[in-house]
Specification:
Layout lengths: L1 E4 L2 E4 L8 H9 L17 E4 L2 E4 L12 E3 L9 H8 L9 H14 L5 H7 L10 H15 L3
Parallel strand pairs: 1-5
Antiparallel strand pairs: 1-2, 3-4, 3-5
Protein name: (2Fe-2S)-binding protein
InterPro entries: 2Fe-2S-bd, 2Fe-2S-bd_dom_sf, 2Fe-2S_ferredoxin-like_sf, 2Fe-2S_ferredoxin-type, 2Fe2S_fd_BS, Beta-grasp_dom_sf, Diverse_Oxidoreductases
Keywords: 2Fe-2S, Iron, Iron-sulfur, Metal-binding, Oxidoreductase
């Protein structure tokens, strides 16, 4: 099968039951996609396909043959979302942050001027065990402010 990950095409062999998470980590070498819960409830495995979030721990890899997938590595370090997470101190251990960053990017693509409630609602499926939710929500708001026309 073929996966285009962060703009690079990879030809990988996977079994019928291989999860997208495992294909990305083991066959492609992407390390930001992580298994947190294994049941799609924590967001650590989030990737974007066509700009839409996918829990890669639940998705069969074969379903994404030919798909374009974005992981946290695919975002530029100067991206508004990435830089706002750094500046707002929105990470402690960092395990969950790639998923939060991708969910935030998805939100801002859909809703460039989200309210605080919009941010909270969109990130509801992601879990941060360190409890940096206020900093994460602030980082999304800062990114939205940066993207708004002055």
């Amino acid at each position: 099968m073929t996966l285009t990950v962060n703009g690079v095409t990879h030809h990988v062999d996977v079994a019928d039951d291989t999860l997208l998470l495992d294909a990305l980590r083991e066959a492609v070498g992407v390390t930001s996609v992580r298994e947190g819960c294994g049941v799609g409830a924590c967001g650590a495995c989030t990737v974007l396909t066509g700009g839409t979030s996918v829990s890669s721990c639940l998705a069969l890899a074969l379903r994404y043959d030919g798909a374009e997938i974005t992981t946290a590595e695919g975002l530029d370090e100067n991206d508004d979302v990435v830089s706002s997470f750094v500046e707002c101190g929105a990470a402690q251990c960092g395990y969950c942050i790639p998923g939060f960053v991708l969910m935030s990017a998805e939100l801002l693509a859909e809703n460039p001027r989200p309210s605080e409630q919009d941010i909270t609602d969109h990130l509801e499926g992601n879990i941060c065990r360190c409890g940096t939710y206020p900093e994460i929500r602030r980082a999304v708001a800062v990114a939205a402010e940066r993207r708004s026309p002055k």
